[in-house]
Design goal:
With 267 residues, the chain is α/β, with parallel strands linked by helices. It folds into two domains: 117 residues, Roll (2,3-Dihydroxybiphenyl 1,2-Dioxygenase, domain 1); 128 residues, 2,3-Dihydroxybiphenyl 1,2-Dioxygenase, domain 1, CATH 3.10.180.10. 19% of the residues lie in helices and 34% in strands. The chain is built from five helices and 16 strands. The strands form four sheets. A five-stranded mixed β-sheet has the order 12-16-15-14-13, with no helix packed on it. A four-stranded mixed β-sheet has the order 4-7-6-5. Strand 5 and strand 6 form a beta hairpin. The model has no long low-confidence stretch (mean pLDDT 90).
């Protein structure tokens, strides 16, 4: 694999209207650049080479996976969405429903059921394990949640996107991790969470300016690998990924969790 799709551009003659519809219809939030966070970034952009309504709505369909398709359908009904295909259950173990957005693009709702994953394992001849359909849930322990909140805000510039009793939820690059109240103490003897940034040197400089103390990697512990200013360069990566290596440095949060900060490298 030499590249990956991280974002989709959705052209419109009225981007503000279309963007508001997705915010209202599916609860999407926009980042500083205007991308809707839908698992993959969707940028609704104004263009003068498209019509007000799409001529071929079935050419590209946005599949929106939801945990409760009936609740999602009720929300769309409140917005008086135009249903192309009402919510229905299919033999593959999936619920489907399709509406059009204000520009006529098809938006398809999909909800998987346990039976879908059973059938998928059968189709794969047993090669798909019981956790293949799971989503990762990263959890970091904190003995003092208020202290942890202050650390992530002041040192890393991260604020919780949600919280509940005894836990803070953070979002980073479309993925989530939680910091939870725990009587246990983090061992801090291995990397528990990694942040990948586009420019490691810039990120390191900004974090140090915030007063973050980064680990000073000992060159003797890394053999032939280059260690410069605490940053370790690893000239190898997974063959299925476009990167050919990575650079990394580590730091500890206020609770002793060891966190990595890295940047992919390319030949």
């Amino acid at each position: 694999m030499t590249s990956s799709i991280r974002s989709i551009l959705l052209a419109s003659t009225d981007p503000d209207r279309l963007r508001r519809w997705y915010v209202d219809a599916v609860g999407a939030e926009t980042d500083a650049d205007g991308f809707l966070d839908l698992g993959v970034g969707v940028l609704v952009d104004g263009r003068d080479d498209v019509a007000a309504a799409t001529a071929e709505p079935g050419r590209v369909i946005l599949n929106h996976h939801v945990p409760d398709i009936h609740a999602a359908a009720r929300r769309l009904d409140e917005l008086k969405a135009n249903w192309v295909a009402p919510v229905e259950f299919r033999d593959a173990g999936l619920w489907f429903g399709t509406v059009t957005d204000p520009d006529g693009n098809y938006v398809q709702l999909i909800q998987t059921t346990p039976d879908y994953w059973v059938q998928k394992r059968q189709r794969a001849g047993g090669a798909v394990g019981p956790l293949s359909g799971a989503e990762l849930a990263v959890r970091l322990p904190a003995q003092d949640l208020d202290r942890a909140r202050a650390f992530y805000a002041e040192k890393l510039g991260l604020e919780p996107v949600d919280e509940r009793q005894g836990a803070l939820l953070y979002s980073c690059g479309g993925q989530e991790f939680a910091v939870f109240q725990s009587v246990g103490k983090a061992s801090g003897d291995h990397t528990q969470l990694g942040f990948v940034v586009p420019d490691l040197d810039v990120a390191v400089a900004e974090l140090r300016a915030r007063g973050l103390e980064l680990e000073d990697a000992d060159a003797a512990d890394w053999g032939d690998l280059d260690v410069t200013d605490g940053i370790v360069t690893v000239p190898d990566y997974y063959p299925s990924k476009p990167a050919t290596g990575e650079r990394a440095i580590w730091f500890r949060d206020s609770e002793g969790n060891l966190l990595g900060l890295g940047e992919f490298t390319y030949d």
